[in-house]
Fold:
Amino acid sequence: MTLFGEPVDAGDDQPAVGRPVDDPNAPLAVRMRPRTLDEVLGQHHLLGPGSPLRRLVEGDAPMSLILFGPPGTGKTTLAMIVSTATNRRFVTLSALSAGVKDVRAVIDTAKRTLEHGGRPTVLFIDEIHRFSKTQQDSLLAAVEARTITLVAATTENPYFSMVSPLLSRSLLLTLQTLTDDDISELVDRALGEERGLGGSVSLTDEARDHLLRMAGGDARRALTALEASAGAVLAEGSTEITLQVLETAVDTAAVRYDRDGDQHYDVISAFIKSIRGSDVDAALHYLARMIVAGEDPRFIARRLVVHASEDIGLADPTALLSATAAADAVALIGMPEARINLAQATIHLALAPKSNAVVTAIDSAIADVRAGQAGAVPPALRDGHYAGAKKLGHAQAYVYPHNLTEGVASQQYPPDELVGTDYYQPTQRGAERQISERLSKLRSLIRGWSGNR
Structure:
């Protein structure tokens, strides 16, 4: 972080970011910040024996890092651990307020410190995706020469938000959203440890479930809500955090929603049926219920992608594009911002003309194949690109459609058993009205050979 735009240089005995973790007046999220890699929750793919991050911390290797992941997954924590474990000067900048001048000041100080036999410098830049190309370029020479060890945090895909030369000079580590089990263990630590709440309050099961849903894999959000609730009950002379206390303290009502039970299936069913029924308002209501309850946004996005083809299809060919774009956005930026993308796709699909012709067509074709209607491929369509194919008559009578004025050849495509079978039956809704007219003409042209076989 920066104070009034100036870089913060952590002293020898002070943690790198914010107040010291043993300051009783520091926020709970700061006090509970892990001090070693072994205390870090989640991110097992980065912390196993021999992993790059563990080698960096334990081996004191001067390697620059890009930490990419959702909020509250431990990016700042890992940066601090790298600093303390490697015994280096730790300077922090926030891309929100720092400029090229601040970056150059840190680099100049780091260079002078090294020249006088001082400790190497770790520069932590939070939200580096907010740096302009010029600001990022100003780091290149220092990172290349290892004048500084850069540790940068970003919530946006660095392949889109960072310049390639800086990315290529750094090790990219992708952090994953914390699981409910990770957050639950963190809450237990905060409730029991002296640096946390020291056993002064307890948490009911209902309140814990709601806290985990609200956190959505964000450790900082969970601890902030827990601290606010603890303050509320202690002020009242009580020691138990109930669901009602938690709802009041964080101003977020609990939504009855079990991600592994009936509510999970009932709400997603109502969501899809509301879209299918073109009730955009009901669809948005159920989407909001899932978001507030902490449903996995990837699950919602997958259902939208399926629905776009199953219930809309070619009645609105852009529906699938909208749904897949929302799914990409969920993967790219995560929540809470991705709620907007999910809402846009939901509205698009709810308002789109509906058709189940695509799913009916493929299911009918599959049913025929399973029933044994999979006859021989017509000789004209068989592969003719091997020795002896011509003698067998393969591909000899094939008519190349591009050689024809209409671009459509009158010839047999399906096996004999399926000649004349119509699987795709477009509706008269949306774009399928025009498709239906064209399809009728195409079938007439293609099947014109049938009377002259």
